[in-house]
Design goal:
Length: 343
């Protein structure tokens, strides 16, 4: 009998990306299963069309404030008839969706600082206490409740032809078809923002030492102002990217030699797309959110002790200076160059 397995990971963009290895593991270990995913907002753009996924359920905005919208979603999921749900988020809203789906087996995390919070440990009925630190590994561990011990990490995010053509057109117009770096200035929390003048110094270093110009990406007017400042202070070594959708940004990242940015969705997208990634880690534990994999690196100088201040305390990010980042950039660029020569 074909099992129907439903992943519930609603947000944020980076966390949804880091949950994709679970999707691929389910497909490898249960090849005949039908797999669905419940997700919110922009992250659905990246998951839609994934080869391992059968069905995508996108939660409308403000669904949890609308009984009618929530009932409609619950009806869709009950009609889909999941046998198993995996609550990878570990919050009341994600576990509520799992419960409303009608699945008899609802997998979730035991109570922890980051997962298994709020009412999730009561609404999920099979709980696991993860041993690993990183989100990717912790999520994969949840599959042990299905007798799956699979540590293989793959993403395999799809690329649409129109996004690829968009990226190629931009790179041609900016004469960046060779080696180039991407600098991402934005972040969802003010505590994850790194000063524009420091990003500008990285752009100058990358071209002066490595012959690698930078393109600065952004989302929204506030980030555009920061990106403009990076370009203005880069001494001609950085170019401003046009406005992009999330999937268009992904196509630009696929073609880059290096990505530099803070702990955000685009940083984790870069990891998923196989671009060497340098992550500037501020308020979150680096063991949990650093760029995953041997080809990437994270920089964190100060650990935040008061977790209540994670969204407002900028001191961890401000403790990271350009010279710290330059050293790691050089290491990644040298490794990348050696790999190119070897291939």
């Amino acid at each position: 009998m074909t099992k129907r397995i439903l992943i519930v990971r609603l947000s944020a963009i980076g966390d949804c990306i880091l949950s994709v290895p679970v999707l691929n593991s389910i497909r490898r270990n249960f090849p005949d299963s039908r797999i669905g995913w419940v997700i919110e907002g922009a992250a659905s753009q990246l998951i839609r069309g994934h080869a391992a996924l059968d069905d995508l359920f996108v939660v409308p905005k403000r669904a949890f404030k609308s009984p009618r919208a929530l009932w409609t979603l619950a009806s869709q999921l009950r009609a889909w008839k999941p046998d198993i749900t995996l609550d990878l988020q570990g919050l009341t809203k994600s576990s509520l969706i799992a419960w409303l789906s009608g699945a008899k087996s609802r997998l979730g995390f035991q109570c922890d600082q980051f997962e298994g919070r709020e009412l999730s440990r009561f609404l999920n009925n099979r709980l696991y206490k993860p041993e690993s630190e990183h989100i990717v590994d912790r999520s994969l561990e949840l599959l042990r409740l299905l007798d799956v011990n699979d540590s293989t990490v793959t993403f395999d995010l799809p690329e649409q032809d129109n996004d690829a053509k968009f990226a190629d057109r931009i790179l041609r117009s900016e004469q960046l078809e060779g080696r180039f770096a991407i600098i991402n200035v934005g972040a969802g929390w003010v505590s994850k923002i790194w000063p524009s003048d420091r990003y500008a110094s990285i752009a100058r270093h990358l071209e002066e030492k490595w012959g690698t110009p930078s393109i600065v990406v952004w989302s929204g007017q506030q980030e555009k102002q920061a990106a403009d400042q990076v370009v203005a202070e880069s001494g001609g070594h950085a170019t401003l990217a046009p406005a992009t959708t999330l999937t268009q940004l992904g196509s630009l990242i696929r073609r880059a030699s290096l990505f530099v940015g803070s702990d955000t969705g685009p940083m984790h997208l870069s990891v998923a797309l196989g671009t060497p990634t340098l992550g500037l880690i501020g308020p979150m534990p680096i063991e949990r959110v650093c760029p995953y994999g041997a080809n990437n690196a994270g920089v964190q100088n100060v650990r935040l002790l008061k977790t209540a201040d994670r969204k407002t305390d900028c001191s961890p990010m401000l403790s990271i200076f350009s010279e710290h980042v330059v050293q790691v950039c050089d290491s990644l660029m040298d490794r990348n160059l050696r790999a190119r020569r070897a291939s």
